[in-house]
Amino acid sequence: MLIGVLALQGDFREHIWSLRRLGVEAFAVKTVSDLEKINGLVIPGGESTSIGKIAKVTGVGDKIVQLAKDGLPIYGTCAGMILLAKKIVDHPDQYTFRLMDISVKRNAYGRQIESFEVYLDVAKIGKVKAVFIRAPKVLEWSSNVEVLATYEGTPVLVQQGNLLASSFHPELTDDLKIHEYFVKMVADRYESVR
Ligand code: GLN
Q1: Ligand 1 geometric centre to CA of 45 (Å)
Q2: Does the model's pTM come out above 0.90?
């Protein structure tokens, strides 16, 4: 079983380390042919505009959309959540993969200097340390989107079938519980399609 971390821009190395600490084989994915080898994909934090632009011109974006529709488990953190969202309320024309039925607003938790750390109560997982850096806020979500954690009443970890997204960065903490949850999603699918 192999998990890819999209490595076009952003903090992909931290995700690779988190996954490897769980004993999972993980590598940096940059091309369409890399995407063909993986059983799960993480889209890291960074700049959603930069990641999106590169994904669009390289064909990586179209491939991700196709794999997601075929059921590939994908987890997006922060910029990764923006790239998964169907609607970006403040940047409606920004290129994203438009896969999850959520509307998000970019940078809605404040600027870099207003970054913060909190403990969240996450359904099925327990207490998790979460880092918010220029994070997107989920403003709307449809009934098929499961809310696994909220912060001040707003969803910050959501799942829609094979797609998982968080406003925050678990890869910047030593808490591996969210990665563990995603690895389980990937393992379950891996077992079922083998
Ligand atoms: N503000 C960034 C964006 O809009 C996301 C920040 C992050 O990933 N930490 O793409």
Answers
A1: 6
A2: yes
